[in-house]
Design a protein that fits this description.
It is rod-shaped and about 100 Å long. The protein contains three helices and four strands; from the N terminus they run ββαβαβα. A four-stranded mixed β-sheet has the order 1-2-3-4. The model has no long low-confidence stretch (mean pLDDT 76). By secondary structure, it is of the alpha/beta class.
Length: 159
Amino acid sequence: MLKITVTETQTGNRWTLQGRLVGPWVRELRSCWKKKRRAQSSQRCVVDLNDVTFIDKSGERLLRAMSKKGAELIATGIYTKHLLEKAKATGKDSLSKLLVCFFAAAVVTPIISADCAQVGRTLATRNARRSLVSRLGEHATHIEANSSTQGKERSRVSQ
């Protein structure tokens, strides 16, 4: 269960949350947030999480979104402070990881392409050599077969 109390002050709104920010309560908070923010989007918003006892992943995502929209999240408990720091870091890390992936792809792709081209040339050369050796081997077998047949015929003729 989650209790949501919104107090309007001269400087803005103070949202006090009490209980567990999970499942259906996340949806309820999101709904209240959207309605209130549409009506008073320019006002300062403080979200007090001091009495929140648990936050699931969907609750973390909502708090991150609220923070991005300008809400100031306040927490004094170790658990809640940790989750808020993690949520802030996750948002920054995601962008950093995305940029690193793009950079790595831009650098590595030409190298891999060059290596693949070299491997392709090497395999083509090896296949050509094997084909040539195979043909020469067939030709050598054919010559040996002809020589032995001619040798037998000569020995019959001389007898």
